[in-house]
Amino acid sequence: QGRMWTHTVGFTVLPHVGGFLGWFINRKEIPGWYEKLKKPSWCPPRKLFPVAWTVLYTGMGYASYLVWNDLGGWSSKAVIPLGLYGAQLALNWAWPPFFFGARNLKMALIDILFLDGLVIGTMCSWYRINKIATLLMVPYLGWLAMATCLTIRIWKDNPEQKPGKSE
């Protein structure tokens, strides 16, 4: 019982680790640089992002635990479904450093487009294993759809500065 609880918490907390680090490392870029970017009228308010990501990371983390548990832990059957999950999590964590840290909107866009594909692949691989886990990923995919559209819009509306130009 104790080990199960530890695994449940571990899997559920894991996505938050990279999310928190991404925020912590890039937090100084948000009030300055990000606020100056041209954004569409439908851009969610800044205060909504940490709330949304807390809910989404919790859901996806718990979903990954359900899949891991249903597959009997780290087995050969878990390689693809949890490998896809791990790959999408890595791309999720890579987006803030591209966007905020490097201010590379094109790289952030490429990252999120691959992320979308990996999340869809993860969900497809999970469907036969655990339908609840798959459903727990639906809000994440919905938020990513909005975030992808937002990234595209910001990339198009904010041409990147040429080296040597002041901001």
From TrEMBL:
It is found in: Membrane. InterPro entries: TspO/MBR-related_sf, TspO_MBR. One of its GO terms (cellular component) is mitochondrial outer membrane. Belongs to the TspO/BZRP family. This is TSPO protein. Its main location: membrane. Keywords: Membrane, Transmembrane, Transmembrane helix. The gene is Tspo_1. It is a multi-pass membrane protein. It comes from the Eukaryota. The chain crosses the membrane at residues 6-26, 47-68, 74-95, 135-155. It holds the Pfam family TspO_MBR.
